[in-house]
Amino acid sequence: MKKEKLNPVLAFEDQQAVDISRNLITEELYNAVTRLVNAFNDLNLGELQEAELPRLIEAPGDFVKGKCADAIGEVPEFGGFKMKRDTLINQLDLPDITHVKEAAAACIKAKGSRPAMFYSMYEISGRAVKVKTEQLEKYLDGSRTYATNEDEIKVLEHYNAFLKAYNDFDALLRSRPVTSGGLKAFPFQSLLNRDPRNGGDAISIHPGLYNALMNPRSFNS
User: Fold this and answer.
1) Per the structure, how many domains does the chain have?
2) Of the given ranges (6-20, 25-39, 180-194), which has the lowest mean pLDDT?
3) Rounded to an integer, what distance in angstroms lies between the CA atom of residue 163 and that of residue 183?
């Protein structure tokens, strides 16, 4: 019988790395890209395609010049002679692209040393810029660790249960005036008392620790 495919279970993530990348893509770089798209659209040279974004950012002058050249269409003839396209383009009164260059520079500054694929995180339609959420999460998975098979998931579940029990026990002790220091007040080795009856492979209640939890003064006497 074919086993059902298991969905990966998140074990932990580098929260700082995830937060930094998410904030960059959804805020700082997003704002810069939106500003650039609007500045380009103000030139009325047609809609900007998603695949064109990196070229516009890296070489805004050449990109705009190319778009102007595309708008010319066929090079006109004069007396049976065609002008060279480059010559014609160089004679055009090109639009002021100061705002485009400033916005492109802001994108480069926001991205910093991160890969150019960050520019592909956006869906562009006219003046609307949207973050590609699925692609963003796929990138953030690089800072996450998952349990991916039955054995790993089982270990993770038991590990999480152990941590929950430990934290719940610590919270209980902190709620009591006589043990407000929580588990940190006791030697860690006493929390994992090896039971000799099981060859030392299992842990059991430490009598001294138990008495200390019920009567903390006895632990220090």
Assistant:
1) 2
2) 180-194
3) 13
